[in-house]
């Protein structure tokens, strides 16, 4: 795929895994987890349209297009069906992939994500979009970093926080807005019952954007799914609680 950057970062005998990142970040957010998995299983990482090294392209972005990007990547990798690990925006892509292309999915990890937004949350997205359009990414970087990482973690891990802020600020404003619009319109909730693959749902107790209640709603709709809530994490548990995230996902992968 000429627009989408992807890279295989591990190989091994286990089930193949594709990882899909959070809004405003790129595949490097998975580096710690992938390092811990190297040699155990094949892992393909990629950047969403307009983020990281992937091009925005000329078509309007919506979640349907991002799902088709993911399906094309899995097909071109020729290692499927895969376990698709998605966090935040990546989790929205994961839900759509399992709904629309079930034969490509062996298992799902839906981390810190939502299946739909209430009207108040959609209004907050419109406000964020308008702010970026008028004033640029720098006007929302504080808001995003405060939502992505808990206050205690930011205070005790300034280097991680600074790196996160730098990555957010590196986004092209037009591409970020396009991805925000796709995320704001997520609407998978009524179709989640179609998902039959084994599913692990993860949430952070401190997450204001993808709350434990939102995770519970996903868990309720996917028959047989597992739910785990990390008590001391906000939106990016692979950074805030890497050992717990590693254990939860590894246990799930080993159970398949």
Describe the protein:
The chain has helices at 31-37, 63-77, 89-100, 119-135, 141-148, 151-156, 158-169, 173-184, 212-221, 237-240, 242-255; strands at 6-10, 17-20, 43-46, 82-87, 105-111, 199-204, 226-230. It is of the alpha/beta class and 256 residues long. The protein has a single domain (6-118, 186-255), classed as Rossmann fold (3-Layer(aba) Sandwich). It has a seven-stranded mixed beta sheet, with helices on both faces. The longest helix has 17 residues, at 119-135.
Topology diagram in text:
Elements: E1 6-10, E2 17-20, H1 31-37, E3 43-46, H2 63-77, E4 82-87, H3 89-100, E5 105-111, H4 119-135, H5 141-148, H6 151-156, H7 158-169, H8 173-184, E6 199-204, H9 212-221, E7 226-230, H10 237-240, H11 242-255
Parallel strand pairs: 2-3, 2-4, 4-5, 5-6, 6-7
Antiparallel strand pairs: 1-3
Helix pairs in contact: 1-11, 2-3, 4-8, 5-7
What tags apply to this protein structure?
alpha/beta; 7 strands; 11 helices; Rossmann fold; seven-stranded mixed beta sheet; single chain; 256 residues
